[in-house]
Amino acid sequence: AQTVTQSQPEMSVQEAETVTLSCTYDTSESNYYLFWYKQPPSRQMILVIRQEAYKQQNATENRFSVNFQKAAKSFSLKISDSQLGDTAMYFCAFSSQGAQKLVFGQGTRLTINP
Amino acid sequence: DSGVTQTPKHLITATGQRVTLRCSPRSGDLSVYWYQQSLDQGLQFLIQYYNGEERAKGNILERFSAQQFPDLHSELNLSSLELGDSALYFCASSVTLFSAGYNEQFFGPGTRLTVL
Q1: pLDDT tens for residues B64-114?
Q2: Contact between chains at A101 and B40 (C-beta distance less than 8 A)
Q3: 8 Å CB contact between B46 and B64
Q4: What is the number of CB-based contacts under 8 A between chain A and chain B?
């Protein structure tokens, strides 16, 4: 069974700083997908970024980028120029190719301070 | 707005009771997924339906059941409720083209269940 581990329960940075959230996962599959979801206080689940395991190039979405290390089974999220609106829980998630369900980590609570 | 709707938004009930949570997927989406989130934990996959048929099952308790109707809306039934069932229950939907590698899941706003 796949597992996803987020080792940082909480993080706090100043506005405009760069922050990196860590995620490791365990799988025996070679083709899969990795995600970062944001859950603000409203509790809505918002997809931030997605990475296909077969792509060597790291995904980027504006201020959000990932560092995908397939051999190390590591998938970190970097938020540049952090904004107050980035304050939220961030969940790393995994989905194997073919299986549609998402396996989530325990989350990292990120606080951006003014 | 993801296009996925869930009702009710909040539900407060007592131990031993039975409740039904409802989910309407985005227009055109054939798959519905149910997830449970307890106390700021990660989401746990419960069950997936595709076009009316059960497709995948997670760690769903026997006291819980779900179904997807011909109009593609889904209901999650929780019975003999216990204090530990208090959680946020999310529904997500996707198109689910099996020829594609992955189909993005769009999440509803969730139903917060409180069992007293």
Answers
A1: 999 999 999 999 999 999 999 999 999 999 986 665 667 789 999 999 999
A2: no
A3: yes
A4: 60
